[in-house]
Prior knowledge:
Layout: E1 3-4, E2 7-9, E3 12-14, E4 21-25, E5 32-37, H1 41-59, H2 63-79, H3 81-92, H4 96-113, H5 116-119, E6 124-129, E7 132-140, E8 143-147, H6 155-166, E9 170-174, H7 181-192, E10 200-202, H8 207-215, E11 219-225, H9 228-240, E12 244-248, E13 253-257, H10 263-275, E14 285-290, H11 293-308, H12 328-344, E15 347-350, E16 369-372, H13 379-382, E17 389-392, H14 398-407, E18 410-411, E19 413-417, H15 421-430, E20 435-438, E21 454-455, E22 458-459, H16 467-472, E23 474-482
Parallel strand pairs: 1-5, 8-9, 8-11, 9-10, 11-12, 13-14, 13-19, 14-17, 16-17, 19-20
Antiparallel strand pairs: 2-3, 4-5, 6-7, 7-23, 12-22, 15-16, 18-21
Helix pairs in contact: 1-8, 2-4, 2-7, 3-4, 4-6, 10-11
Amino acid sequence: MIQELTHFIGGKHVKGTSGRFADAFWPMTGELASKVPLASKAEVRAAVENAKAAQPAWAATNPQRRARVMMRFLELVHAEYDSLATLLAKEHGKTVADAKGDIQRGLEVVEFCIGAPQMLKGEFTDGAGPGIDMYSMRQPLGVVAGITPFNFPAMIPLWKCAPAIAAGNAFILKPSERDVGVPLRIAELFIEAGLPAGILNVVQGDKEAVDALLDDQDVKAIGFVGSTPIAEYVYTRGTAAGKRVQCFGGAKNHMVIMPDADMDQVVDALMGAGYGSAGERCMAISVAVPVGKATADRLVEALIPRVESLKVGTSLDPAADFGPVVTKEHLAKVKSYVDIGVAEGASLKVDGRNFKLQGYENGYYMGGCLFDNVTKDMRIYKEEIFGPVLSVVRAKDYAEGLALCNDHEYGNGVAIYTRDGDAARDFASKVQVGMVGINVPIPVPLAYYTFGGWKRSGFGDLNQHGPDAFRFYTKTKTVTSRWPSGIKDGAEFVIPTMR
Length: 499
């Protein structure tokens, strides 16, 4: 049965009125799953007005009570963890086990937001001057919004909305139209947890909805995660409209493998980091950089049988290493990049383009692909593929491996595998990338640190989650106070100082 999905505004489901819909498909089978309404500018404006009306009372609610909503939300999600993960897996294509990780990483940020009373504390100075006290306070911005991608339909919406809501804002979520079921359920569960209607709204849509949010003067801040060209567009248009904007874009994450690295550990790490979730992660390792010919030869020899033996299955197959990619169009795009790599002269050691899953021939499946002898002038090295494709770029020495990481236009995540503490320390200091792993393949920081890339992987001054999230979603007010004691000082015509 094909569902017609909804928006979620003012604490209830609202049918779309624009007359425009996007088709969402089950990646496992290729069947049409649902019709997703695409909001008009007027529908976006209605959501903003609803949020604007609800926000002042929520901002006036003390932080402890806001934190209790977060605690209750955690309980509700844990009560239906399995069903949420199954829904996410079916809509996106990732395995159920991976979907549970998607949800858990989002919940860890919600857990961090329970500390909102601590994060929102200002500073106080008693006796800053003669009879003068000074203090600061953090106050919410008002109505804020998040535009989130298909590849983490639970995690990234929670990374965006939880800190914003805990800080006293009203939030409008514009999720990917490819997998909207989990974001809608998240909104329902927040209402069940005690969040007032209007504080979290979900608006489905495409570019028209995005532009409406970017142009609306009542939307004070916007967070975005997606491809770099769209991240740059959102950042440029949003800042031009006077908004606070944080945007995170594409990636080409390298793993540098030193000659002294434990090769078994390296191969295990590359298999999971390169092919998990069919490579549809912004922190996936898509480039292996072995240092020295002997290291490269050992690595490729060890990788080939492991990539050939990858088990591709349905999202509900507990034995599958990864499932289908998200759409038919994306499958064609990833395959086209493999074609490009062959044409560019890279050595295709494992070719997964012709993989078909018996009984699911219309699903969006592809086997793992492995390239060797990739060079930095090739498109498959320069551009983000976002699929189960790993490229080996050989470096003659450590300096060349480090330079490859530093010279690439993306700077999201990077890893080094070595037993040498000096090499690891030097790499962590000199690499021009936002998140670094030392013998850790996917260095996603925990919720109380911040997540963000450098160069063309990130636009804006503040990162996601951790203390930066509360800084992003609040503004600081500083108060200087003096209570007259009956002494008249007379008029002063010079700037006040504390001398």
